[in-house]
């Protein structure tokens, strides 16, 4: 059996984790909105048309923040189309995804949905076809209490209290040639600076996210990030980064995607530090990894100019779930720099759950590591010291085949250890938990694994892939030996 060592010390904290590290994303893409979070007339929908099974899922996974309304969609979106009486809202050609947008769900509905889901909103403004003035006007509509034309319009539309959205994204992927009205770094940096200035005049207490690189493969990376920060460093609180991974026939490459994510975060952290030094400032801009997931980017669109098309409905595999678990560990291990992140997306489009119009919901294999880490990964992130066999990969060179993260929940007096065994063989994990004051006892070990890495959950077999309980291993002082099955995602809880 393969051997690995993992040491975790109570005295080596990385950060106090911001719960927004476990956010998600809803874009007007496919059936994410229409038929996803919003389906009037469904037997399980409430009086607002919100699907209660989806709301239950969001609350079960404790999703703390949801990015909206895009995504590529936002760069051609006029937010005024989505407010007021629904019968008066215009139908538009939606150019980003070649669909029909009915505008039956807009910013007011999203605010109501956030309250129902017990989550916050992360609002993206249009810096493609949109202007700084329009962004500031949306903020005024949402957050100003009243007494102005726009805030009183919100009140007339049935929302007397401000929506009070605190986090705002200055556009989306503006470095991408696929983006509606994409910009150069200098063009975007100047526009984002002016937008941030106007928005802070409206509400000085908001947090702002500047567009960072949306792909490491773009020739502008990471010069884009440096230039944008040189314009906006004093204006913004976060720089965004986006990254998707794809199965290309080699399970080893996908399951070790966390190593590529590590490198991406390290590069942009260094870029931020360079600009910080250049500006001679004490301010520390953080990272918002507000799009990340596995994505089969070659999935064909079902057709053009459809309403709520069944596009980007990916049936995720066990292998995808293992990759997601590894990337969640990376986010925890970089939680001093990455303070917010959004699994893209929440429902029906590249999502951990799928729904049927008029029917039920099924949880994809990827739902389980996301839910487990979101619910258990709260508290202090602790440094992990790993010794494990290495594997050579095409995308990241030599990679350790054990990916892990650890969190201490002081209130619950629990150590939570997350571990991904990337090997095709079982691994004996020699675990050491140091400097915890009290006796340690393993109280839970769950495993997500299976003989078929390509297994999926669907409406015929919704629980084909799900975690199962493993025996709890005795802890002798600070040490335990734990078997990690081949190619498995493991969640272990230790009571202090």
UniProtKB/TrEMBL annotation:
Residue ranges annotated for the Alpha-L-arabinofuranosidase C-terminal domain, each copy included: 290-488
Keyword Iron carried by entry: no
Reactions that this protein is recorded to catalyse: Hydrolysis of terminal non-reducing alpha-L-arabinofuranoside residues in alpha-L-arabinosides
Pathway entry: Glycan metabolism
UniProt similarity note: Belongs to the glycosyl hydrolase 51 family.
Main enzyme class: hydrolase
PANTHER family registered for this protein in UniProt: ALPHA-L-ARABINOFURANOSIDASE C, ALPHA-L-ARABINOFURANOSIDASE C-RELATED
InterPro entries (UniProt xref): Alpha-L-AF_C, ASD1_cat, GH, Glyco_hydro_b
Protein name: non-reducing end alpha-L-arabinofuranosidase
The protein's assembly and partners: Homohexamer; trimer of dimers.
Enzyme Commission number(s) from the entry: 3.2.1.55
Keywords, comma-separated and alphabetical: Carbohydrate metabolism, Glycosidase, Hydrolase
């Amino acid at each position: 059996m393969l051997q690995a060592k993992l040491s975790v010390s109570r005295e080596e904290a990385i950060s106090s984790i911001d719960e927004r590290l476990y956010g998600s994303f809803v874009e007007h893409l496919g059936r994410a909105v229409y038929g996803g979070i919003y389906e009037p007339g469904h037997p399980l929908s409430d009086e607002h048309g919100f699907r209660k099974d989806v709301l239950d899922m969001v609350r079960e996974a404790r999703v703390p923040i949801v990015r909206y309304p895009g995504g590529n969609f936002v760069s051609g979106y006029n937010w005024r189309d989505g407010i007021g009486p629904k019968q008066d809202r215009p139908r538009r050609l939606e150019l980003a995804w070649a669909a029909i947008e009915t505008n039956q769900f807009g910013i007011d509905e999203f605010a109501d949905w956030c309250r129902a889901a017990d989550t916050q909103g992360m609002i993206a403004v249009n810096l493609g076809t949109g202007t700084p003035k329009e962004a500031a006007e949306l903020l005024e509509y949402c957050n100003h209490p009243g007494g102005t034309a726009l805030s009183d319009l919100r009140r007339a539309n049935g929302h007397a209290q401000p929506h009070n959205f605190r986090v705002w994204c200055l556009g989306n992927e503006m470095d991408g040639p696929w983006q509606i009205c994409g910009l150069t770094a200098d063009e975007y940096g100047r526009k984002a600076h002016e937008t941030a200035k106007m928005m802070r005049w409206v509400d000085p207490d908001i947090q702002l996210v500047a567009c960072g690189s949306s792909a490491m493969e773009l020739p502008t990376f990471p010069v884009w990030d440096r230039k944008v920060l040189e314009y906006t460093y004093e204006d913004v609180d976060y720089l965004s980064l986006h990254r998707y991974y794809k199965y290309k026939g080699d399970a080893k490459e996908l399951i070790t995607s966390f190593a590529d994510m590590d490198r991406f975060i390290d590069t942009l952290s260094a870029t931020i530090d360079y600009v910080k030094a250049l500006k001679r400032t004490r301010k520390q801009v953080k990272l918002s990894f507000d799009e990340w997931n596995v994505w089969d980017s070659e999935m064909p669109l079902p057709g053009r100019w459809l309403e709520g098309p069944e596009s980007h409905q990916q049936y995720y595999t066990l292998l995808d779930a293992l990759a997601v678990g590894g990337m969640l560990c990376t986010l925890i291990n970089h939680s001093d720099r990455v303070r917010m992140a959004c699994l893209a997306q929440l429902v029906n489009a590249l999502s951990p759950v799928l729904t049927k119009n008029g029917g039920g919901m099924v949880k994809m294999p990827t739902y389980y590591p996301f839910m487990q880490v979101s619910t258990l990964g709260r508290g202090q992130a602790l440094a992990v010291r790993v010794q494990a066999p290495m594997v050579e990969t095409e995308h990241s060179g030599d990679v350790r085949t054990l990916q892990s993260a650890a969190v201490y929940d002081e209130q619950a007096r629990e150590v939570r250890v997350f571990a991904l065994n990337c090997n095709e063989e079982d691994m004996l994990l020699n675990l050491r938990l140091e400097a915890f004051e009290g006796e340690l006892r393993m109280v839970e070990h769950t495993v997500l694994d299976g003989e078929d890495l390509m297994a999926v959950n669907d409406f015929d077999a919704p629980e084909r892939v799900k975690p199962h309980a493993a025996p709890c291993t005795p802890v002798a002082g600070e040490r335990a030996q734990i078997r990690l099955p081949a190619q498995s995602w493991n969640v272990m809880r230790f009571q202090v």
